[in-house]
């Protein structure tokens, strides 16, 4: 097989990154935008030892599950790389990810529920973070083409709340009008690197964050004032990122206009959200995810609960009214301050949060003899560490509720809990990210007597 060769391929499967999978002369070929059951003519873009990447030149036989996507760029950029598949089949694809992982781990007896559909299939995101670059002489916002830093200009972000799109475009036009230079990555020059916009579904409040190379530039005051006049914008913040790096956010935030936080709600609990706070991005699906976890945990008024990887306290504060006490652990100090303030804001007196690494605090608590009834974990994609898992098991909770945004690390961690005397019967996938291949999943581990 050679680069630029054109081959006829039969697509057998979808990879976990939503690429069509075919085989040719013992080599696995990943074909962008192709669906199982399709026969395509594809051009080879890159060849490695045992796999290759290809692009569709023509679809010879089309899948009945393919739908026409209004803007090809949504799929090309990875913004919505599953948008060409019907929503029902997207849900099946996510369930199958979990089934395959369990099979690989020889856990075929575990039941996998149907993926819980999102109430909204598009326009569900409460936050957008988009690059700003100069394209053909003009400041543009958009998304990078997959595996590159070429900006594809966009004015409709499809999975984002349309009210956020409205503000993104208004800010883009203000930057253009005031001739603010976009960031130039090659020369490490210019001003605005990214735009972030967050919107509360509950209150309609909008926060705009300009992520900039310098913390000041000549047009900044005027630009901030004009942005603050866009309808529903209540907070304008500058995040200063002077580094030559792919990391989006810098360390420092400066309030330019309005308030430092916006208020959102999950169920009946209010949350103040700061620029850097992690907040689940699918506003309507989040309460369903938490309710599922709460129902599965069968909480009682006597329970002492740990909320590990707690962010601004969303899970712990949502369960506080069902239990005796909640203790949270989170690594980002600002998020911990927000969590404790959010407890006060909602007059929740039985929840408190501490700053630290969950894998260090948990062993300490275990050593101090803490007895807990239920531990909720909601770690980042890399999952839990061995130290955390051992310490969690050593505190002997009756149940461990594991919410995960990466079923691969979740299944790995569940196997370790099994070795330590815990078992589980079922995993429930929940679709928090329609049109993308991301899978969220929930399971409850129970201690064996
Ligand atoms: C997937 S988020 C979940 C946040 C929260 N439970 C929610 O649903 O909004 C994971 C959180 O874990 C935090 N985190 C990452 N590594 C951590 C660690 N080693 N110890 C404690 N928290 C950590 C992150 O800062 C982030 O807030």
From TrEMBL:
Domain TRAM: 1-58
GO BP terms: rRNA base methylation
Coiled coil: none
Gene3D superfamilies: 2.40.50.1070, Nucleic acid-binding proteins (2.40.50.140), Vaccinia Virus protein VP39 (3.40.50.150)
Active-site feature positions: 405, 405 (nucleophile)
Key words, A-Z: Methyltransferase, S-adenosyl-L-methionine, Transferase
EC number: 2.1.1.-
Keyword Translocase among record annotations: no
Keyword presence, tRNA processing: no
Binding residues for S-adenosyl-L-methionine: 280, 309, 330, 378
Enzyme class: transferase
GO molecular function annotations of the record: rRNA (uridine-C5-)-methyltransferase activity
Protein family membership: Belongs to the class I-like SAM-binding methyltransferase superfamily. RNA M5U methyltransferase family.
Record-linked NCBIfam families: rumA
Protein name: 23S rRNA (Uracil-5-)-methyltransferase RumA2
Gene source species: Lactobacillus pasteurii DSM 23907 = CRBIP 24.76
Source organism phylogeny: Bacteria, Bacillati, Bacillota, Bacilli, Lactobacillales
């Amino acid at each position: 097989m050679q680069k630029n060769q054109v081959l006829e391929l039969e697509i057998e499967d979808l990879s976990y990154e939503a690429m069509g999978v075919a085989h040719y002369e013992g080599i696995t070929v990943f074909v962008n935008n192709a669906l199982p059951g399709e026969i395509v003519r594809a051009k080879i873009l890159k060849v490695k030892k045992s796999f290759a990447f290809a692009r569709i030149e023509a679809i010879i036989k089309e899948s009945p599950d393919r739908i026409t996507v209004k803007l090809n760029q949504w799929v090309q950029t990875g913004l919505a790389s599953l948008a060409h598949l019907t929503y029902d089949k997207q849900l099946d694809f996510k369930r199958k990810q979990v089934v395959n992982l369990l099979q690989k781990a020889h856990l075929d007896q575990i039941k996998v529920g149907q993926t819980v559909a999102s109430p909204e299939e598009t326009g569900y995101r409460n936050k957008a973070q988009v690059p700003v670059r100069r394209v053909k002489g003009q400041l543009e916002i958009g998304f990078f083409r997959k595996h590159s830093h070429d900006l594809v200009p966009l004015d409709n972000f499809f999975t984002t709340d349309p009210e956020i799109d409205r503000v993104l475009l208004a800010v883009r036009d203000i930057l253009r009008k005031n001739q603010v230079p976009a960031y130039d990555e090659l020369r490490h020059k210019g001003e605005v690197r990214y735009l972030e916009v967050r919107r509360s579904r509950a209150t309609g409040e909008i926060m705009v964050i300009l992520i900039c190379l310098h913390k000041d530039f000549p047009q900044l005051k005027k630009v901030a004032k004009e942005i603050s006049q866009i309808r529903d914008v209540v907070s304008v913040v500058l995040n200063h990122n002077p580094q030559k790096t792919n990391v989006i956010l810098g360390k420092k935030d400066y309030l330019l206009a309005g308030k430092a936080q916006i208020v959102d709600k999950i169920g009946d609990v209010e949350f103040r959200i700061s620029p850097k706070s992690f907040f689940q991005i699918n506003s309507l699906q989040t309460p369903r995810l938490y309710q599922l976890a709460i129902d599965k945990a069968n909480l009682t008024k006597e329970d002492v609960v740990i909320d590990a990887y707690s962010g601004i306290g969303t899970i712990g504060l949502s369960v506080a009214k069902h239990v005796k006490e909640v203790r949270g652990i989170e690594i980002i100090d600002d998020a911990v301050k927000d969590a404790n303030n959010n407890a006060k804001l909602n007059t929740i007196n039985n929840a408190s949060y501490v700053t630290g690494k969950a894998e260090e605090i948990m062993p300490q608590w275990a050593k101090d003899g803490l007895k807990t009834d239920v531990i909720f974990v909601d770690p980042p994609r890399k999952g839990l560490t061995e130290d955390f898992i051992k310490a969690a098991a050593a505190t002997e909770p009756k149940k461990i509720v594991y919410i995960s945004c990466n079923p691969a690390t979740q299944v790995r961690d569940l196997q370790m809990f099994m070795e330590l005397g815990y078992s589980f019967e079922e995993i429930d996938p929940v679709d928090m990210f329609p049109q993308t291949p991301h899978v969220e999943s929930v399971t409850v581990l129970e201690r064996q007597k």
